Amino acid sequence: MNGPLVWLYAGVLGAFLGSFANVVVHRLPRGGSVAWPRSRCPTCGHPLSAAELVPLVSWLVLRGRCRHCGAAISPRYPIVEALAAAGFVGLAIVTPLPAGLAVALVLGAAWTVLLSVAFIDLAHAEIPDVLTLPPLAAALAAAAAFGGARPVGPSLPDLAGAAWGAAFAAGVLVLVDRVGSLALRRGRDTRERLWPLGFDQVAVAAVGGAVGGLAVGLLAAAASTAANLASRRTLRLGEPVAWGLWLAALLASPVGIGPVDAVAGSLAAAGAVALAGGAVWWVVDLRAGARGGAPPTDPPTADPPSAGPDDETDDGTDDGADEPVAMGFGDVKLAGLLGALLGVQGAAVALLAAVAVGAIVGVVHRLAGGGRAIPFGPWLVVGGVIAFVAADAAVAAYLGWLGLR
Question: Domain segments of the chain: what residues?
Answer without folding.
Answer: 1-94, 128-185+324-405, 192-315
